[in-house]
Design goal:
By secondary structure, the chain is of the alpha+beta class. It has eight helices and twelve strands. It folds into three domains: 50 residues, no CATH class; 99 residues, Beta-Lactamase (2-Layer Sandwich), CATH 3.30.450; 113 residues, Beta-Lactamase. The strands form three sheets. It has a five-stranded antiparallel β-sheet with strand order 4-3-7-6-5, with helices on both faces. The N terminus is likely disordered.
Length: 291
C-alpha cells in the first residue's frame, strides 16, 4: 500500500474537480493525485498565448476567405499535406494526399513539379507566373511563390507555397495591349500621328511618323527635344504656351512649324486635351498633330 502524501492526497471527487478547476493538478497516479502548484502567472501567460494563436489563425483564415490566394504544403514526394482556400474548383479533401499530376493536365503538372522540385534541390525560393489547365477548361493564371519547408533541424521536408489567381488581371492586361495596338495603328494612319504626355507635360509617346519626320528618337522627344526642332520664331512662344496649358489644365490648340529631316518647315496644327481621373485630377494629356 502506498503511503499517504501529506498535503497532496484528495479524498473525494469533489476535491479532485476543485483542484482541476484551479489548474493545480498535473498528474493522477492510481488513487493518488499528485499536485504540482504552478504560479498563476505561468498559467495566465499560457492562456494568453493560446488566445493570441487562436486570434492569429482566425485573422489568417478571414484574410484568405473569398480572396484569390491559396496556401498549401507538399512533402518531398510533392503530395499535398495541407491546403487552405483551394482553387480550380477543388475542395481540400480532393487535394490532400495527391500530386499535381493527379489534379491538373500533364503539361501544367510538369511545369509545377519542375518549379517545386527545383526549390527542393536548391533550397532557394522562387516566384513565377504559371498557367494551369484542369479538365480541359480555359487556363487559369497564377502568381506562384514556392519556398522550402524545413524541419527544426533545418532539413528540407517539402515546400510551402502561396498562389494568387491573376487570371482577371491578365485578361485586362491583354485587352489593354490590344487597345493600345488599335489606337497606335489609328494614330499612325494620321500624317503626323498622335501624342501622349504625362501630367507635367512631358511627352511619353509620339507616333513613329512624327519622330521620323523631324528625325528625333522617342527618348529625345520625352526630354523636350521636340522644342529643338520648332521654328526659331515659334519655339519660345510655343513652349511658354504649353507650360501655361499644363498649369491651367486647358485644351491645347496651336499651330507651329517643325523642321523636317528634308530641311523643310512643316506646318502642324497640334490639338490635345487633358485626361482626368474621377476626382478631376489631370493624369495625362492626349492629342494629335495635323498637317
Amino acid at each position: 500500500m502506498k503511503p499517504d502524501l501529506p498535503g497532496t492526497r484528495l479524498e473525494d471527487a469533489e476535491a479532485v474537480m476543485q483542484a482541476l478547476e484551479q489548474c493545480q493538478v498535473d498528474a493522477i497516479l492510481g488513487s493518488e493525485v499528485v499536485m504540482l502548484v504552478r504560479p498563476r502567472e505561468v498559467v495566465e501567460t499560457e492562456r494568453k498565448l493560446a488566445e493570441a494563436l487562436r486570434q492569429s489563425e482566425q485573422r489568417f483564415r478571414l484574410a484568405l476567405t473569398n480572396s484569390p490566394v491559396s496556401v498549401f504544403e507538399q512533402d518531398l514526394d510533392l503530395r499535398y499535406t495541407w491546403i487552405y482556400n483551394p482553387k480550380l474548383g477543388f475542395v481540400a479533401d480532393q487535394v490532400i494526399g495527391k500530386t499535381d499530376a493527379e489534379l491538373v493536365d500533364p503539361a501544367s503538372a510538369a511545369t509545377l513539379e519542375a518549379l517545386k522540385r527545383g526549390v527542393i534541390d536548391t533550397g532557394q525560393p522562387i516566384r513565377q507566373e504559371v498557367a494551369t489547365v484542369v479538365r480541359g477548361e480555359p487556363p487559369t493564371c497564377f502568381d506562384l511563390y514556392v519556398e522550402p519547408h524545413r524541419d527544426e533541424d533545418g532539413r528540407i521536408i517539402g515546400v510551402i507555397c502561396a498562389s494568387t489567381d491573376i487570371t482577371g488581371r491578365k485578361a485586362i492586361d491583354e485587352q489593354l495591349r490590344r487597345s493600345e495596338a488599335l489606337y497606335r495603328g489609328i494614330g499612325e494612319s494620321i500624317d503626323y500621328g498622335v501624342w501622349v504626355c504625362d501630367p507635367d507635360g512631358r511627352n511619353t509617346y509620339a507616333s513613329e511618323s512624327f519622330l521620323k519626320m523631324v528625325g528625333i528618337t522617342q527618348q529625345q522627344c520625352s526630354d523636350f527635344g521636340w522644342g529643338d526642332v520648332l521654328h526659331p520664331d515659334d519655339a519660345a512662344a510655343t513652349l511658354a504656351a504649353w507650360q501655361e496649358c499644363v498649369r491651367t489644365g486647358g485644351d491645347w490648340n496651336r499651330e507651329h512649324r517643325f523642321r523636317g529631316v528634308d530641311g523643310a518647315w512643316h506646318h502642324v496644327l497640334a490639338r490635345g486635351v487633358p485626361i482626368r481621373d474621377e476626382q478631376g485630377t489631370v493624369v495625362s494629356w492626349a492629342g494629335i498633330n495635323l498637317d
